[in-house]
Design brief:
Elements lengths: L14 H11 L6 H11 L1 H17 L11 H16 L1
Length: 88
């Protein structure tokens, strides 16, 4: 029996367009928390996929090792920060 792996499909399909839409709907200078809430409201199925993938990683991690994926809110924080850094 081989190793058990997490699924390898895209977590957020059409991620770039979805992130741009969330930012377009937010006011200029919106906070991280507002971004996360807007993303969860606009794309609940993608949010569920992020949480599911994180939980898969969490179940398969070895004791004493960190997860290869950040926590779901941190995952969105990374997307938020990357978008802002590319925008400037």
């Amino acid at each position: 029996m081989g190793k058990i792996h997490v699924s390898k499909s895209e977590i957020i399909k059409d991620k770039t367009n979805k992130i741009q839409k969330v930012f377009a709907d937010l006011k200029e200078g919106s906070s991280l928390e507002e971004f996360i809430e807007a993303f969860k409201q606009n794309y609940p199925e993608d949010w569920d996929r992020i949480v599911k993938r994180y939980n898969e990683h969490k179940k398969l991690r070895k004791k004493g090792k960190s997860y290869p994926m950040p926590e779901p809110d941190r995952y969105l924080e990374n997307i938020y920060n990357n978008y802002l850094s590319k925008k400037n």
